[in-house]
């Protein structure tokens, strides 16, 4: 939406949304509170996790675009352009979600996640490293003669507009300051993130980050069942973060 001319202050209608489908029947998503709040700034909609604003915005932009962005950030491979997917009805992994949020907080640069950074042999020689960048002026036997610290180039592709990612990071800071993750505010650190809760509280998520660290938390059972009445990402996943 931000890439298409919306701003954090753009008003989006928070009101009942009904979709009639000849095969699936009637779909009526609701906010967690069960209430409606009228025209609301986009920023507040994300801070308060308003489902109806999200669905209405996705419907306006078109789910083909939403699916394209999801695939672009590596959350999915081929996300079906179904409106329910705008509320997270599709499936992904914790690693994929955490990586996607990392690409927001770093200004829109591509991240390729890895579980192994480096492998050394018995003599301490590196035989594999995930980071393939060359560091000119680095080495074991370089004499220190007050030269400047070597600069390692950042060659990662820019996959998103840094102005847009700055805005979305600012919005998610508001999630901690005023929204569904406000209990983190007492830590007095620069924090941002987003809570997530599926139907019947079967899954609870929190994706949180500082300027240099992203932590993703998923809670749920191997055989999906409710975590408990009124349990949410804010009450279950966020304290783990």
Question: What is this structure's SSE topology?
Answer:
Elements: E1 11-14, E2 19-21, E3 25-27, E4 38-41, H1 42-47, H2 51-61, H3 63-72, H4 94-105, E5 118-120, E6 126-129, H5 162-177, E7 192-197, E8 203-209, E9 214-220, H6 233-240
Antiparallel strand pairs: 1-4, 2-3, 5-6, 7-8, 8-9
Please tag this protein with its features.
single chain, 241 residues, alpha+beta, three-stranded antiparallel beta sheet, two-stranded antiparallel ribbon, 9 strands
What does this structure look like?
The relative contact order is 0.12. The chain is of the alpha+beta class and 241 residues long. The protein contains 6 helices and 9 strands; from the N terminus they run ββββααααββαβββα. The mean pLDDT is 94. The chain has a 3-stranded antiparallel β-sheet with strand order 7-8-9, sandwiched between helices. The protein has helices at residues 42-47, 51-61, 63-72, 94-105, 162-177, 233-240, and strands at 11-14, 19-21, 25-27, 38-41, 118-120, 126-129, 192-197, 203-209, 214-220.
């Amino acid at each position: 939406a931000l890439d298409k001319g919306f701003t954090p202050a753009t008003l989006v209608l928070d009101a009942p949304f009904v979709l009639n489908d000849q095969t699936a029947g009637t779909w009526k998503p609701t906010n967690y509170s069960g209430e409606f709040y009228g025209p609301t700034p986009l920023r507040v909609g994300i801070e308060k996790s308003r489902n109806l604003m999200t669905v209405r915005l996705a419907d306006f932009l078109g789910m083909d675009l939403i699916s394209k962005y999801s695939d672009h950030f590596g959350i999915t491979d081929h996300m079906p352009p179904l409106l329910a997917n705008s509320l997270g009805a599709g499936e992904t992994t914790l690693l994929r979600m955490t990586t996607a949020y990392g690409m927001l907080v770093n200004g829109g640069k591509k991240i390729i996640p890895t579980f192994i950074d480096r492998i050394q042999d018995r003599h301490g020689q590196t035989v594999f490293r995930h980071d393939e960048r060359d560091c000119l002026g680095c080495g074991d036997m370089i004499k220190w003669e007050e030269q400047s610290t070597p600069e390692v180039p950042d060659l990662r592709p820019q996959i998103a507009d840094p102005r847009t990612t700055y805005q979305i990071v600012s919005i998610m800071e508001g999630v901690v300051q005023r929204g569904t993750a406000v209990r983190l505010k007492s830590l007095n650190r620069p924090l941002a993130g987003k809570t997530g809760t599926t139907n019947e509280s079967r899954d609870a998520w929190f994706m949180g980050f500082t300027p240099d660290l992203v932590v993703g938390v998923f809670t749920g059972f191997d055989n999906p069942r409710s975590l408990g009445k009124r349990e949410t990402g804010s009450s279950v996943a966020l304290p783990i973060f």
